[in-house]
Design goal:
Layout lengths: L9 H8 L7 E8 L4 E8 L21 E2 L1 H4 L11 E12 L31 E6 L8 E4 L3 E8 L8 E4 L25 E7 L4 E7 L10 E7 L19 E7 L22 E4 L6 E2 L4 E2 L6 E4 L4 E8 L7 E5 L4 E6 L2 E8 L1 E4 L4 E7 L6 E8 L10 E8 L23 E2 L13 E2 L21 E11 L2 H4 L17 E5 L2 E3 L6 H4 L25 E3 L2 E4 L4 E8 L7 E5 L4 E8 L13 H8 L9 E2 L1 E4 L3 E8 L4 E7 L2 H4 L4 E6 L34
Parallel strand pairs: 3-4, 4-7, 6-11, 12-17, 16-24, 21-25, 25-26, 27-32, 29-30, 31-39
Antiparallel strand pairs: 1-2, 4-5, 7-9, 8-10, 10-11, 12-13, 14-15, 17-22, 18-21, 18-23, 19-20, 19-22, 23-24, 27-28, 32-37, 33-36, 33-38, 34-35, 34-37, 38-39
Copper (II) ion (CU) binds next to loops.
């Protein structure tokens, strides 16, 4: 294993946050990448005398010591104290092209806050979207490593509960704020406010999104960017700009509501396909009826010539299409994936699946001009319909608003060149000009424990879709969960023999309130209520001892089709391999030798595997990942396609014991079944008790 830099950054971090005491002394944990270990950092709160209390866009007065979103989006400097960053978001149903658009037109990339309440999107008139603070995408969280993040989420969406997940944030010591309804909290009911608070413990490009219902597909998401002082970046010499608006937040966009797609109709199903993509909430739409584009503004990235810019691409999609990104006449140097630094790789195309993030450097060494950025949807779900979007890269000094070259078409678009993360390709050397995630080199040394010959715990998760017989699904007095992905097909997702459901109460705070027949920790010992059923819908909780080395093998054992991106909460895992089951046949009985046989079939390029929190399983293939289970909690592991998540394609890793977790916060909301004894008379009037 090669060491890029053998120096521990812990002493530097101690220096970073060790400054003259002014008031309160505290501590928090950060993840030290160079040792793959958690460390406690002691700090003292800053004197609050220099904090600006006039914070635009904030309704309520803010207690002292809180910093506004604008104050927190700052260059991170060694020696600066952490801030406590306060955000107040009101979620409501909203629509595009509304009355606000007669007052103002959004003029900059959506970022920290906006004074303009107009949402244009791609020019289509869409009602029923859900937004925070009338921004789309939602407000960005941009902070420095070590900051506290406080977000008050106020839900005024009629008839809907909400919860917000902070994708990529480890939440060690803050497990009650991971935002998974019925796992780490009760969802936020209408008219309520829930205060999320967590420490920015791991740097990188992340994002937040709804984990409740289908709300994410209706617009509930936004960027999270956690920066470090520049000297901590292993690839710091490659870029000299890390601007607050240089994120490329890509969403798939529906011209109707997500519920129109779920569970779908038996005939004429509109499936799980987007109508369009948006870049930073912007885009145009090619109306197939008249072959004309809408005239809404495209996202524009302004740069100066001769510079090196860090860009942060965040795939905020929810539906089935992977996307590819190209920039006309420019290559991209990948420097981080899912927030973790990798050794640089120069590519021409970045492919990504729902929830993946890729940081890259763009050198503005071309002729002063204006260039196209193209975002294309891939797979059978987007390619036949040519779903794509454009954005613009404009050099300072260019007098062109739009590039002079023709707009790249879907079929004859920008050249692909070298492709990063190709769909369903396992990079065995037979395809030229590709680089897979498993081939990336971690920029930091990897903890040797990861390479242990036998993991402490191996979890084999074969998955497929069960196709219901009509007579089974519509058996009288049964109500099995299903989705109709295409015409005349009703399915349930099965992972290791179980279609996962969520209990009525979150186990993190109300484990004793969960009915026993909901749970199924062992697929070979299912609850009695599943006797005689074709499939069992139950809460698939897998117990993992704290600090064990865990190896997960996820295997797509269904018919060939799409590639599913699996996301792990609370962790990044090491990508040990991806492969095809037709080449390495992994089963429950031979799984213990899976990695060894994989290595024989696919000799590894990387001896320093990258870390990710979201990884796509090739169709008909598998992924092998490892992590050290040092973060106790109830962590969801699931396909990030929204409909698959709600169709059971998930499991829960219960790591450690309740005694390893912080106490449940005071007045933490409760939820669950209300099933008292059945009354045989009217309730006794209070006065007669
Ligand atoms: Cu899936």
């Amino acid at each position: 294993m090669q060491l890029l830099n053998g120096t521990s950054i812990f002493p530097i971090l101690m220096t970073l946050f060790h400054f003259v005491a002014t008031s309160h002394v505290g501590s928090y944990k950060v993840y030290i990448k160079s040792s793959s270990q958690w460390r406690t950092v002691n700090y003292t709160d800053p004197d609050d005398s220099d904090i600006d209390q006039s914070m635009p866009g904030i309704e309520k007065s803010i207690p002292p010591l809180l910093s506004s979103p604008e104050e927190c989006a700052r260059p991170c400097k060694t020696g600066d104290p952490p801030k406590t960053c306060y955000y107040q978001w009101t979620f409501e149903t909203y629509h595009t092209l509304g009355g606000a658009c007669e007052l103002c037109t959004p003029t900059t990339n959506t970022s920290l806050s906006s004074n303009c309440q107009c949402i244009l999107a791609d020019g289509a008139d869409v009602s029923g979207i859900i937004v925070a603070n009338r921004q789309f995408p939602g407000p960005a969280i941009q902070v420095c490593l070590g900051d506290m993040v406080i977000v008050d989420v106020k839900n005024i969406v009629p008839g809907n509960h909400l919860s917000i997940h902070w994708h990529g944030i480890y939440q060690k010591d803050w497990q009650h704020y991971d935002g998974v309804p019925f796992l780490t909290q009760c969802p936020i009911s209408e008219c309520s406010t829930f205060r999320y608070q967590w420490r920015a413990q791991n740097p990188g490009s992340h994002f937040w999104h709804a984990h409740s219902g289908l709300h994410k597909a209706d617009g509930v998401d936004g960027p999270i960017i956690i920066r470090e002082p520049p000297e901590f970046y292993p690839n710091r010499d490659l870029f000299n700009h890390d601007n607050f608006d240089n994120f490329i937040f890509i969403q798939d966009w529906l011209h109707n509501n997500a519920l129109d797609h779920f569970p779908g109709t038996s005939i004429n199903s509109i499936g799980q396909n987007p109508d369009n993509f948006l870049v930073n909430g912007r885009g145009q739409w090619l109306d197939p009826s008249n072959r004309k584009y809408t005239t809404t503004p495209l996202a524009i990235f302004n740069v100066k010539p001769g510079e090196r810019y860090r860009f942060r691409m965040i795939n905020g999609c929810t539906l089935l299409c992977p996307i590819e990104l190209q920039i006309e006449n420019h290559n991209m140097t990948i420097i981080a994936v899912d927030g973790v630094d990798v050794r640089p790789e120069i590519v021409n195309t970045i492919t990504s699946f729902a929830a993946e993030r890729v940081d890259f450097v763009l050198n503005t060494y071309e002729l002063i001009g204006t260039y196209w950025i193209q975002v294309r949807g891939l797979s059978d779900n987007c390619t036949p319909r040519s779903v794509q979007q454009h954005a613009i890269l404009r050099y300072e000094g260019s007098d062109l608003d739009e590039p002079s070259s023709p707009r790249p078409q879907f079929q004859s678009g920008l050249p692909r060149g070298k492709v990063f993360n190709p769909v369903n390709d396992v990079c065995d050397g037979t395809t030229a000009n590709v680089i897979c995630i498993k081939d990336l080199q971690n920029a930091n040394p990897v903890n040797d424990l990861i390479f242990g010959s036998q993991p402490d715990m191996q979890i084999y998760l074969p998955f497929f879709f069960h196709n219901y017989e009509r007579t089974d699904l519509f058996r009288p007095n049964t109500y099995q969960r299903f989705v109709d992905p295409i015409n005349n097909l009703s399915v349930a997702a099965i992972v290791d023999g179980i279609s996962n459901i969520f209990p009525p109460s979150p186990p993190i705070s109300q484990l004793d309130d969960i009915p026993a027949d909901i749970l199924c920790p062992d697929p070979n010992n299912l609850p009695a209520r599943c006797d005689g059923l074709t499939i069992c819908h139950c809460a698939h909780f897998i117990n993992i001892p704290l600090n064990s080395l865990v190896e997960i093998i996820v295997a797509d054992i269904g018919p060939l089709g799409i590639s599913h991106p699996f996301h792990l909460h609370g962790y990044s895992f090491h990508v040990m391999s991806t492969g095809l089951l037709s080449r390495v046949n992994i089963t429950d009985t031979n799984k213990s030798t899976a990695l060894q046989r994989d290595r024989e079939e696919y000799p590894p390029i990387s001896d320093n595997p990258p870390m990710k929190d979201t990884l796509a399983v090739p169709s008909g293939g598998y992924t092998i990942v490892r992590f050290i289970a040092d973060n106790p909690g109830w962590w969801l592991y699931h396909c990030h396609f929204l409909q698959h998540l709600f169709n059971g394609m998930s499991v829960v890793f219960h790591i450690g014991q309740d005694s390893d977790l912080p106490p449940t916060p005071k007045n933490f909301p409760k939820c669950g079944n209300f099933e008292p004894s059945i009354l045989r008379t009217n309730p006794v009037p209070r006065g007669e008790l």
